[in-house]
Inverse folding.
């Protein structure tokens, strides 16, 4: 799948529509932080970044994506529906009794969800352990990581048929910026850098808002960039709604082999729905029927 | 314990490092994730034969549990360390929301559980861990009584997919079992037949219950002693059959009487018509914290020793 910026943009628009439809149908959920992450997930899944086989969600050599900010489950479900892993109609079962689409992602119920999340602050640790276990070539030698037995089987061949060194899967993990207030994130950051996990990429959905208000008013983070740099991470910045910029950042991570990389994606909470943008009141509130219609018509305009 | 057996003493924690090495040599893809206590937990033994398999996260227990979760997602059989007070209590949310909720193949195997930790005092004496782990869906809870049963508990944990808690202690305990003894999830062991009262114990209290059974002979009371090695799943049939026979029960645990083995037995009896009115005494820590002291002193102070169990038995027969 070659990178096609316009195709990714259309996917992102459809993901946003699905988010509104499903949260509207459920009558509860988290639209703000789902919408802010839509372009990030669209670029990861449909911008030739994440390596996966939509027909085999348990393919051992796939790259992994962990949604550490589990409350943004709708953006993940909408993305999995775009992949074809979930029938589009099933999205409307979100949060209903018996649905695979739990309020927060449940890996026991839904293929394509690597691990259950919902309690903030845990995803980076899980991702670090997974990256270590899958085998980080450099880290393996440097800090005792694992070299997977059959990593890259079927992938280790270049187009010419020349064998190349197997590339272990990359683990991508999306965190909210408010989530960075959880102390465990920094335990994991320290660990991942110490282990030089160069198959680990964290993305921060930096929308600046949390439930109770602006991050800088609740408990200010200061410079996210300076913090990760101080923890020996390689830091990239990107406009989290600019598909080309996100793609460029993801491409750069492949060249940064010294250890883990974080992409700080500057985003707007509620992005794409004008009355939700920048409003922390839309963190965990469902739109009414009228508001859904208004949001969907606005998104249809953006489809052009 | 009777005098004639002259048992060898060993701590259950010593089984952790030995079992991990044994499992590795058997080809199990085992890893140990510890938080700066690998000497105390004995996980360092695995590191000495396979350095890459001992993952020390530093003093960061929350990260320890979730790194183990990630390693399990990569196919590893991941054992976690630290002391029980930190390795279950401090990381309860990580165990609940990641390990158990996602039903991951992570083994919670911290050491230094119970008040037998001794001089370190109440901050380090974990007496709520059985309760915390027992209440979690998908979690199994094993409480070995000596080194040999700890080896078996750790093997069972390794070969049982999903979360298992194995409660390990610091203090050296008398030998109860030989190496040939086999254990299974959901199986209690009848150690001594009796007719008048059933003493159901786990962990360090198994040896104390056997002592109590000897003491009770002086009162012409013949106590049956059961090792409730598997607290979850609990061996309901062995326990119910024994209680139906003897008519009285004493639970014995180095743990709070709230939420642990005694509670599990009380729940079981209460739900079984005909047995609900059998007298039950719960020997354990009576809703208080631990304190500094050596292990025998603490077992006397907290009424956990054989004499206290015998007195509790006399109150129900």
């Amino acid at each position: 799948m070659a990178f096609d910026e316009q195709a990714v943009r259309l996917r992102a628009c459809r993901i946003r529509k699905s988010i509104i439809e499903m949260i509207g149908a459920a009558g509860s959920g988290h639209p703000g932080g789902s919408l802010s992450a839509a372009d990030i997930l669209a670029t990861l899944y449909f911008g030739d970044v994440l390596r996966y086989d939509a027909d085999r969600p348990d393919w051992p050599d796939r790259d992994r994506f962990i949604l550490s900010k589990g409350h943004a489950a709708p953006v993940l479900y909408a993305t999995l529906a775009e992949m074809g892993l979930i029938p589009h109609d099933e999205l409307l079962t979100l949060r209903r009794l018996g649905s695979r689409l739990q309020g927060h992602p449940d890996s026991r119920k839904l293929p394509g969800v690597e691990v259950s999340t919902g309690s903030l602050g845990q995803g980076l640790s899980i991702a670090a352990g997974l990256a270590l276990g899958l085998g980080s070539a450099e880290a393996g030698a440097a800090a005792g990581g694992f070299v997977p037995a059959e990593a890259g089987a079927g992938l280790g061949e270049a187009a010419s048929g020349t064998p190349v060194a197997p590339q272990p899967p990359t683990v991508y993990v999306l965190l909210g910026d408010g989530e960075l207030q959880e102390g465990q994130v920094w335990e994991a950051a320290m660990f991942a850098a110490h282990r030089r996990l160069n198959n680990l990429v964290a993305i921060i959905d930096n929308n600046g808002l949390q439930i109770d208000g602006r991050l800088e008013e609740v408990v200010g983070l200061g410079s996210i960039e300076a913090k990760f740099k101080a923890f020996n991470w390689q830091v990239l910045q990107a406009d989290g709604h600019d598909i080309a910029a996100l793609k460029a950042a993801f491409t750069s991570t492949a060249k940064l082999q010294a250890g883990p990389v974080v992409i700080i994606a500057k985003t707007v909470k509620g992005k794409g729905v004008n009355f939700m943008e920048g409003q922390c009141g839309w963190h965990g509130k469902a739109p009414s029927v009228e508001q859904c219609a208004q949001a969907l018509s606005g998104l249809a305009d953006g489809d052009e | 314990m009777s005098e004639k057996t002259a048992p060898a003493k060993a701590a259950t924690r010593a089984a952790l490092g030995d079992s991990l090495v044994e499992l590795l040599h058997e080809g199990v893809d085992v890893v140990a994730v510890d938080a700066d206590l690998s000497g105390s937990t004995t996980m360092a033994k695995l590191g000495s034969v396979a350095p890459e398999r001992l993952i020390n996260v530093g003093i960061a227990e929350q990260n320890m549990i979730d790194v183990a979760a990630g390693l399990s997602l990569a196919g590893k059989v991941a054992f976690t360390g630290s002391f029980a007070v930190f390795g279950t209590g401090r990381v309860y949310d990580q165990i609940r929301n990641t390990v158990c909720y996602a039903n991951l193949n992570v083994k919670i195997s911290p050491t230094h559980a119970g008040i037998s930790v001794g001089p370190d005092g109440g901050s380090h004496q974990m007496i709520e861990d059985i309760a915390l782990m027992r209440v979690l869906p998908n979690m199994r809870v094993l409480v070995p009584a000596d080194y040999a049963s700890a080896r078996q508990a750790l093997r069972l944990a390794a070969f049982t997919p999903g979360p298992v808690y194995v409660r390990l202690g610091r203090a050296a305990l008398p030998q109860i079992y030989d190496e040939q003894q086999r254990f299974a999830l959901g199986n209690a062991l009848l150690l001594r037949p009796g007719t008048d009262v059933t003493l159901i114990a786990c962990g360090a209290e198994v040896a104390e219950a056997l002592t109590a059974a000897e003491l009770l002979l002086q009162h012409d009371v013949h106590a049956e002693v059961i090792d409730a090695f598997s607290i979850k799943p609990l061996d309901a049939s062995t326990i119910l059959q024994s209680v139906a026979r003897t008519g009285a029960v004493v639970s014995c645990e180095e743990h709070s009487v709230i939420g642990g083995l005694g509670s599990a037995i009380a729940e079981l009896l209460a739900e079984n018509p005909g047995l609900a009115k059998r007298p039950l005494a719960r020997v354990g820590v009576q809703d208080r914290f631990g304190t500094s002291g050596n292990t025998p002193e603490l077992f006397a102070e907290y009424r956990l020793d054989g004499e206290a169990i015998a007195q509790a038995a006399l109150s129900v027969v």
Q: What stands out?
A: The CA atoms of residues 243 and 296 of chain B lie 30 Å apart. The two ends of chain B are 22 Å apart (CA to CA). Chain B has 13 helices and 14 strands.
